[in-house]
Amino acid sequence: MELPKVDFKYIRQQRSIKPSDKNSTVKAMSGFISNSDKDSLMRASYYQITRNFTKTVNRFVAFKDEDKLIEIPHGIGQRSKFIDLMIKYFETLEEYEKCNKLLKLKDLVIMAGD
């Protein structure tokens, strides 16, 4: 199963992540990020994008830490893919309230042109 490609726009940098398959992603990530770090990152992103739906639809900042931020650009179809990725993560943790809120945000993002 191929995971969707997600483009992240850093301030003054552009990075693309396209894993070839789930197993290679897990292998690559195992030496890169721990499960607790992944959980912290997913929760920080969740709170960042669900804090204010209007701001998120206009400027999709997926992560913000002091002077660093990760923004997903408008109009390339990556915002809804990022939300799908988060929904799958929180489904595995059985945090369905978060999934529901993310689905509402996804609908707004898609209506705005993703």
List the helices and strands and how they pair.
Layout: E1 6-10, E2 13-17, H1 22-30, H2 35-50, H3 53-58, E3 60-65, E4 68-72, H4 78-92, H5 96-111
Antiparallel strand pairs: 1-2, 1-4, 3-4
Helix pairs in contact: 4-5
Could you explain the architecture of this structure?
A four-stranded antiparallel β-sheet has the order 2-1-4-3. It has one domain. It contains five helices and four strands; from the N terminus they run ββαααββαα. The chain is α+β, with helices and mostly antiparallel strands and 114 residues long. The relative contact order is 0.16.
The overall average pLDDT, rounded, is: 81
Using the CA coordinates, give the radius of gyration: 14 Å
Helix % is 40-55%
H-E order? EEHHHEEHH
Report the oligomer: single chain
Give the count of helical stretches. Answer: 5
Structural class: alpha+beta
What is the number of strand segments? 4
Task: Give, in spatial order, the strands making up the sheet with the most strands.
Answer: 2-1-4-3
